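Subject: Protein record for review, amino acid sequence with backbone structure tokens
Concerning: The relation between a protein's sequence and the shape of its backbone.
How to read it: Take the token row as a discrete description of the fold.
Enclosed: The protein record, placed directly beneath this head.
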Amino acid sequence: MKQLVCGAVAMLFAACGVAWAQTAAIDELKGKIFDARMAEQTFANGLQHCNELDGKNFYFRLRNRILNLEEYFRSLENLAKAQVFNPETKRPWTLEDAKARWEQVKKEAQADKEKCELVHSLPELEKRLQELEKAAAAAKPADQKQ
């Protein structure tokens, strides 16, 4: 009798573990779908350039155009060499300013690439969510019978 009770408790924990895993996977997918939809709205103008946003280019929002990282860095170097006034630092550009700005836009380039990939994966994410929710709904009645 004691073994039967222990076995039943173990099966209950196993069923709860599967249900919890499904719920966690569903919640994670819902989070990714939410992020993709937000990116779709906030990065709408940049999405039309996704084929160029490969990590080597970034979307320059102020001018609604794509800039190449290497060319952008050369431009920053030229600003430093010419000692053009930098409105952010309120002094002429320096090579350190140029490098810092370049690091910033490299991160932007990677973020732009990730946004494009996330938005393009939205239909697949929604399809997987439907499949997981269907599987969870099918498993729920089976868990309740035990």
Q: What stands out?
A: The two ends are 18 Å apart (CA to CA). The helical segments are 2-42, 44-47, 69-81, 95-120, 122-145. Residues 33 and 122 are 6 Å apart (CA to CA).
